[in-house]
């Protein structure tokens, strides 16, 4: 499993676009929002949390189809399925690799972009905490969507259609947590919900995704 | 005789063909009678004549949820027992469910405008129905995107399972997110909360009517799907030979 | 003791049976060559035996984790070097000797070349070298000699012979003569007949 993780990370570095693109997309989105809603703090501050989460979500979505599609095309997926590695484990590792290449850079960059959107400094810990708890679920659900659509032509659009509704609970609790952090409210309930959803997703979704992959391999 | 015998396409076609006229007639009688009766009910002292939308709104909303549950059960039967008719029934039900959800949303908007002064409000109930509609659309899109019918049935089955969990989760998340304007359940078991009998009985009738309407449409659509599969099977066999 | 035993196997592609009633056994040190016209279901049969798709009926008996499968796609990553590609599969399958595999398919001079820079035949050789590092006893090979030149085919045949000599086995679908001392199974007589089946292979049989 470590070999698979190492290979995926190495590929992301060498093939280019793995680490950088998601963050670049995130930056562009955060730079465009003030053009749309105006540069006032009064306009930006209330929506900053939502924009940051939406940006993270869309940046994550961009690279989802690469999780399995490339391995499917070159036959690696067939070989992985006949290897001693359980397919569920392979799914989990590939979702982890996606999170490291996409989610982690976003989290590191998020406070910076928060400043761009006039997010008050007091909300930064809540922003980091909510992204840290929430983005692993985004990667894992994305891996499920990618597994379902792996063999399809024009799978990319369908992938977004299938995956985005699954992101709704995470999005709701993530932004709610930042909003409460911003207003000095009780962050406990949304934090627990967010952590609960992520834990549940990480525990169950690898099995659903592996089942979908097996269907697509046969 | 076991219920699983209906998983045999030939048996299903014969039985459903015999039952279909009765179901269609029942659906027509209940729906039309219920709607006409509902239209003739007196005006509500608070809501005026707009209350009559309830006879479309509530049955459609109820069916929207029930059809998803039916799809979940049918998907489980397919995934566990591999009955092909069951998978086709789930496929046939999805567009009906999507339309029911749409009817619920549109009648809700028409009702909400005079009551709340707005066509759309990000109320938890409305929002969860919008999310349900998204799940229906994704499910239908996946069925139409996968070419191999066996893979399509398997993948949509898994999607239906995961989607059910997340639809439920979204519903609670949405209640957490925004407290709403929507009135409580129209048919509550607690006395005092209930609507008066004048409205309740025609409502029961339209609900029964919509249930039968769904059954009729489901049978027709499933029969069409079976015929389409049969056609595809014969063509595939001919090409192979 | 047989490494692979197949009893009364039926496999399906696109929801229709392709071959049925296939039985064979391969002992350690033996190879079996599958033959038959295009479309008879050789690839489907190999994928079924490799566990990539379920059998319609019949039994497949083999020790756990015995199969190394190689098909038309080699599972190579162009951004990784030849040695890294092999090293990855060696790690996943539990650590075989990369150097030995490179020598077997004459890839040592190319070891540090990125796989994207290889020719089609060189890629194929790398894909086959993976079999050595997998250390699996049963090789399932689907048209292994595509895009190999005559010298490479000889080298590959030597590699298979070496594998058999070490107590391995191989199930190969191929149209060319590898010069192996192997049994040949022609699938033509096993072509599935269009009779209604007790257990349908898929939608196309359930509704025909």
UniProtKB/TrEMBL annotation, chain A:
Q: Which spans are transmembrane here?
A: 12-37, 43-64, 96-117, 123-150, 157-178, 190-213
* Keyword annotations of the record: Cell inner membrane, Cell membrane, Cytochrome c-type biogenesis, Membrane, Transmembrane, Transmembrane helix, Transport
**Carries keyword Transport?**
yes
Q: What InterPro entries has UniProt attached to this entry?
A: Cyt_c_biogenesis_CcmB, Cyt_c_CcmB_bac
Provide the protein's localization.
Cell inner membrane
Q: Topology versus the membrane, per the UniProt entry?
A: Multi-pass membrane protein
So what does this one do?
Answer: Required for the export of heme to the periplasm for the biogenesis of c-type cytochromes.
NCBIfam families found in the cross-reference section = ccmB (TIGR01190)
Q: Which family does it belong to?
A: Belongs to the CcmB/CycW/HelB family.
| The protein's name in its UniProt record | Heme exporter protein B
Q: Which gene encodes it?
A: ccmB
From TrEMBL, chain B:
What is this entry's stated membrane topology? Answer: Multi-pass membrane protein
Task: Tell me if tRNA-binding is a UniProt keyword of this record.
Answer: no
- Top-rank taxon: Bacteria
| Chain segments annotated as transmembrane | 20-40, 60-80, 92-114, 126-146, 158-178, 198-220
Write out the entry's keywords from A to Z.
Cell inner membrane, Cell membrane, Cytochrome c-type biogenesis, Membrane, Transmembrane, Transmembrane helix, Transport
Q: Where is the Cytochrome c assembly protein domain?
A: 4-182
Write down the Pfam families for this protein, in alphabetical order: Cytochrom_C_asm
Annotated localization: Cell inner membrane; Membrane
Question: What is the similarity comment for this entry?
Answer: Belongs to the CcmC/CycZ/HelC family.
Q: What's the stated role of this polypeptide?
A: Required for the export of heme to the periplasm for the biogenesis of c-type cytochromes.
Instruction: Please give the name of this protein.
Output: Heme exporter protein C
Native organism is Paracoccus acridae
Automatic annotation (TrEMBL), chain C:
Q: Where is the ABC transporter domain?
A: 4-206
The record's keywords, sorted A to Z, are: ATP-binding, Cytochrome c-type biogenesis, Membrane, Nucleotide-binding, Translocase, Transport
- The answer to whether the entry has keyword Mitochondrion is no
Q: Name one Pfam family in it.
A: ABC_tran
User: What domain of life?
Assistant: Bacteria
Q: Which InterPro entries match?
A: AAA+_ATPase, ABC_transporter-like_ATP-bd, ABC_transporter-like_CS, ABC_transptr_haem_export_CcmA, P-loop_NTPase
Molecular function via GO: ATP binding
Output the PANTHER family linked to this UniProt entry. ABC TRANSPORTER I FAMILY MEMBER 1 (PTHR43499:SF1)
Q: What is this protein called?
A: Cytochrome c biogenesis ATP-binding export protein CcmA
Query: What species was this sequence derived from?
Result: Paracoccus acridae
Lineage of source species: Bacteria, Pseudomonadati, Pseudomonadota, Alphaproteobacteria, Rhodobacterales
